Structures are given as structure tokens and as C-alpha cells.
Amino acid sequence: MRFKTLATGAIAIAVTAAPMAVAAKTVALTVTIENIAPENTVSFAPLRFGFGNGTFDAFNINEAAGAEIISIAEGGSGSAWLPAFAAADPGAVIGSSAGAQIPGTSQIVGTFNIDTEANRFFTFANMVVPSNDLFLGNDNPMAFNLFDDDGNLQLFDITQTVAAIWDANSEVADPDNAAFIPGANNDARIAENGLIAFAFDELSVFNGLTTAAGYVFDGSNLRLDTDIFRVTFSAVDVNEVAEPAAILPFASGLALLGFAAVRRRRRA
Ligand SMILES: [Ca+2]
Ligand SMILES: [Ca+2]
Ligand SMILES: [Ca+2]
To answer: Domain with 236 in it: what CATH number?
Structure first.
């Protein structure tokens, strides 16, 4: 009887303490990417991404591509994009996936400790290959707000279609100077001097060519609404895991069992 009273009181402490924990929330966020394009069509260079405050903006539609987005669109490396992100938003969590991704494959990019306030906006870019200057990425740095005001994950996946392919219009389409084509020299380029636009028609110059992954490219069946790429997010609340230790001085082990039971019911 006495134990029961003690446990109930401890549960009350845990419940009233919960909102304070939410205010400064860190989550372990796992990122998975999938190439969901039809086979023998587009692959992707490594994903370059960051979780930031929404201030890093690497490009704008209808403007000439700068060095930051050219390092994605023409090279896939992000050699200018990644440091520019870090400089613009020092509190951002920035990363890359590993290797090129061919159709039908998925990859767990990693798990990142994310502040749900300072790192709430996801920004990404990756080169679409084979190509000379095609890429995916968000023009608006606040387009993907992952968390609500309570720090709960509210955006679970981002799916990109063919209509989302950008043409940097910085390099003329030419298989001899393209990425992901064996024998081509991607470092070579003929300046195109155009403006960034949604367009995928340059893919047609690669029809019938063998790619670096060994498949023969065929983009003839790609339509604007064809799904090609997906990013998926899942979050575990780091504070939830730490909280029982924080209340340990005020509660018995039995009360902790009660707290665990409450959490299980909430998740059910
Ligand atoms: Ca922009
Ligand atoms: Ca081009
Ligand atoms: Ca090139």
C-alpha cells in the first residue's frame, strides 16, 4: 500500500517534469535514402545535406549557378557547397552519404544528434547522373521544416519526381564531358551560361550509352511524375532516454518502473 502511494507520487513528478524536457530537445535522427527511379535510368552522386536554421541558400531559380551549387551539379562533390553551408550556419549539422546510388538501392546515411530548434530545417543537394549539370535540391532553405513547435518530428519523408530535376544550365550537355560515363572526362566543360531551371531533357543525350555502373541508360520512359528519389527520417528523443537518471535522486527504483510503464502506454 505504501509502495503504491510512493509510485503514484513519483509518476506525478515525472509527468509534470516532461514539458520542461521538451523545451530543450535533442533527437537522434536517422536518415535513409532510396533511389526509386526505374531501372536503367538515373543514378545519384552522394547526397550532400545539412540540418540548419534555414539561412543557407545555395541557389535560386532563374539565376546563374554560383560555385556552391556548381560543385554539386557538375561534380557531385559539394566541395564548395559543404564549406559554404558551414560558414553560413555554424550551428548546422552537415554530412554526406557514401557512394553513388543506382536505381533500386537504399542506404542508411546515418544517425545525427539534432537540436529540434536550431537544426529544424533540412537542406540537401545531389547530382543526377549521368549528366553534365543536373541535380536535385531545395531552392527554398525553409522548404523542409522537420519539427513542430514541441520538437516532434512532423516531416517523415521527402519524395522527388522527375519534375524536381534542376538543370544548372552551367555546362553544355556532352557525354564526352559528363559524369558517370566511362572514358568521359567530367572535369572538362563547355560553359552554357544559362539560368537555373527545372528541366531534365538533357538526359536524352545519354540514351543508349553505358554508365559507370554498367547498365545502359534509357531515359525514354521518364515522365514528370515518375518518382526517382526519397529521403526518410525517423527520430528517437534523446532527452526521454536521459530523463529517468535526472529524476533518480527524487524517486525510488519502484517509481522508475512506474514511469517506464507510463512511457510505454504513451507510445502504444
Ligand atoms: Ca534559393
Ligand atoms: Ca546543361
Ligand atoms: Ca563536366
So the answer is: 2.60.40.2130
